[in-house]
């Protein structure tokens, strides 16, 4: 069984823990579509390649950034932890969010929604559902 299927079977979200300039050098559209198809809900990174971060939002994936001076190494994260990230219902661009691991560690990340439009895309499940809803309400 694939990891994503195993996670789905037990109701566990799939999270990505990443380093600097996450998404650099990749085939940009598939770099965001692939994780979305695997059920990734969010990416916690030190930083993002600019267009890739926007593409993640367009696929309904939340990009989070570690706070200045923090990363997986300084927080002693291995990538084997489970993450509980519960963004507030009224999230704002750049808002801080508390991340708690299944090992009891907590740290703060910034939600990397940079505009209200990106929030609208995310709130609709991504850019495609957003556009479809816009088209179906314009009669």
From TrEMBL:
GO terms for MF: hydro-lyase activity
Entry superkingdom: Eukaryota
Aconitase A/isopropylmalate dehydratase small subunit swivel domain segment(s): 4-68
Gene3D superfamilies in the cross-refs: Aconitase, domain 4
InterPro entries per record: Aconitase/3IPM_dehydase_swvl, Aconitase/IRP2, AconitaseA/IPMdHydase_ssu_swvl
SUPFAM superfamilies recorded: LeuD/IlvD-like (SSF52016)
Single Gene Ontology BP annotation: oxoacid metabolic process
PANTHER family linked to this entry: ACONITASE/IRON-RESPONSIVE ELEMENT FAMILY MEMBER (PTHR11670)
Protein name: Aconitase/3-isopropylmalate dehydratase large subunit, alpha/beta/alpha
